[in-house]
């Protein structure tokens, strides 16, 4: 298959060998699970259980609310200990409403949702409903509700479902292991999703550094028509949605548009596996594969983890972390986020937990820009990081927006390559967040202004009506007075007029 | 050639003179700094500074007859921006920083007197005589007028908690290590 080049990008040390040959092992169910109600983009889920309730594994704990949201299910059987605010697995460390579930040790499944035996005979709406019911979100880390994304087929003419198995982040091997060990589930899930999307073709793209995954997927794909497996060059950020689309199809996604606008929808391989389980087995999303790695971890592993497991328990399962641990990160080292504490939970979007040593981090004091232009050469989005950063440093966010800071995918290639160690991507993350916040504020002000104007207009109308009513009443009163006065006047006037007439 | 240059020159001079005179005669006397100051203010027209709106506060600021620390929604950032533009010293410590807030009616204390509804400029409070009133949080812009008029002190101005969705990274320090 012909591939197309993508712009820029870097070749970091991948260090995937730490875990790439470690088969997925299941984590024994922890005593207590901590399930945040917000594990996805959009509105938080709405609880359907109360403290003290007994639940079975797979039972609904919280249902989706609003158009963009995802349901949450019990990862094991047990008792709801409490529903309370706890630190979110998010760099902000803000509190988030969390369901605490005490395991009863039986790990007993609830009655599963009825399996859809022939998903290809089912309507796309039925598949979509099942995916929503199972609480599936994009498991590459973006955590966008998958059912919403499967609905794109209704508004766009789609040609290709592109399954993302690039896994371009260093260290992470969870997708690699899923593709190797569950190739049949991945391919089946992908075909079901393509059916729901109305996309005639499935392409599974895997970076060339995972030959075993490519082989096992190819063996599965050979059994079905319309599924193609393609190896793509090892180049970070190949796994970014737009870049993978460009590399495989040669179609460039316009700024602020979706890949669906060029006929392609991208889903992660782990999402495909979750869809397979939801549709064929009737099982909701209650666990995920997580890579625990990094130089400070005693025994790096790939682990199937029940959602809600605390990071500290996961690290203990891997022999704990050594004293050299400098940073604990959720996700990959390029785009992952620092964790506020080790007591936060593994959520649907946690692809990896990394404990990195000093030598593995890129912590240097930044020095002035030397105008080498490396960031411009390596930016995979064709932006000019040096210029955007200097605008942002001087609080000229509007100018930074004008030259495309909102089109930055935060891949971190510029920060990685910068010889002066300027935290470029940090500037862009700040600017994107700040611009969005200012936008919200502006909308709020506009809304307030509209409300105030409507209020004033209403008062004015009321005053006007009052004036008119008063005028009317006055006129009526005058008329009545005139009418009352008229007979007298007439009586008085009659002789006069008679006289006048006489005269 | 001479004719061309001459005619164009005459046209230029005439039109220039017309425009110049018009600019002088029809000029609207606006203090340019007023507009600049207004752009620095949040523009929510809340009236918490004591002026009718942001434009009026900006006008007063331009004349220099009012303190620069009156804008509650703008916070310290606005004070600093105003101080920088006006070249005056900002005593920002005197200003108490309040984040985004929303009015909240304590149901046990509300007597349904309608006074807050009369005060509210953005129709953010609903209720009927002798019935419980409530605040539509989305429409409230935290002007505190209801808070001040409530006879039973049933209204409090509550801070709006920060959400993960609205959170963003802070600006990196000049010599940040990451």
TrEMBL record, chain A:
Coarse class of the protein's main subcellular location: membrane
Binding site for [4Fe-4S] cluster 1: 369, 372, 375, 418
Top-level lineage group: Bacteria
Binding site for [4Fe-4S] cluster 2: 379, 408, 411, 414
Alphabetized Pfam families for the sequence: Complex1_51K, Fer4_7, RnfC_N, SLBB
CC cofactor: [4Fe-4S] cluster
GO terms assigned for molecular function: 4 iron, 4 sulfur cluster binding; electron transfer activity; metal ion binding
Record field: compositional bias (Low complexity): 481-503
Gene Ontology biological-process annotations: electron transport chain
Membrane topology field: Peripheral membrane protein
PANTHER family: ION-TRANSLOCATING OXIDOREDUCTASE COMPLEX SUBUNIT C
Protein name: Ion-translocating oxidoreductase complex subunit C
Protein species of origin: Paramagnetospirillum caucaseum
Gene name tied to this protein: rnfC
From TrEMBL, chain B:
GO terms of biological process kind: electron transport chain
Co-factor note (free text): Binds 3 [4Fe-4S] clusters.
Positions bound to [4Fe-4S] cluster 3: 120, 140, 143, 146
Keyword terms: 4Fe-4S, Cell inner membrane, Cell membrane, Electron transport, Iron, Iron-sulfur, Membrane, Metal-binding, Repeat, Translocase, Transport
InterPro entries for the chain: 4Fe-4S_dom, 4Fe4S_Fe-S-bd, 4Fe4S_Fe_S_CS, Elect_transpt_cplx_RnfB/RsxB, RnfB/RsxB_Proteobac, RnfB_subfamily
Residues annotated as domain 4Fe-4S ferredoxin-type: 101-130, 131-160
Residues bound to [4Fe-4S] cluster 1: 46, 49, 54, 71
Gene Ontology MF terms: 4 iron, 4 sulfur cluster binding; electron transfer activity; metal ion binding
Keyword Translocase set for record: yes
Domain 4Fe-4S: 29-88
Binding site for [4Fe-4S] cluster 2: 110, 113, 116, 150
GO cellular component: plasma membrane
Cofactor list: [4Fe-4S] cluster
Pfam name, any one: Fer4_21
Name of this chain's protein: Electron transport complex protein rnfB
Organism, scientific name: Paramagnetospirillum caucaseum
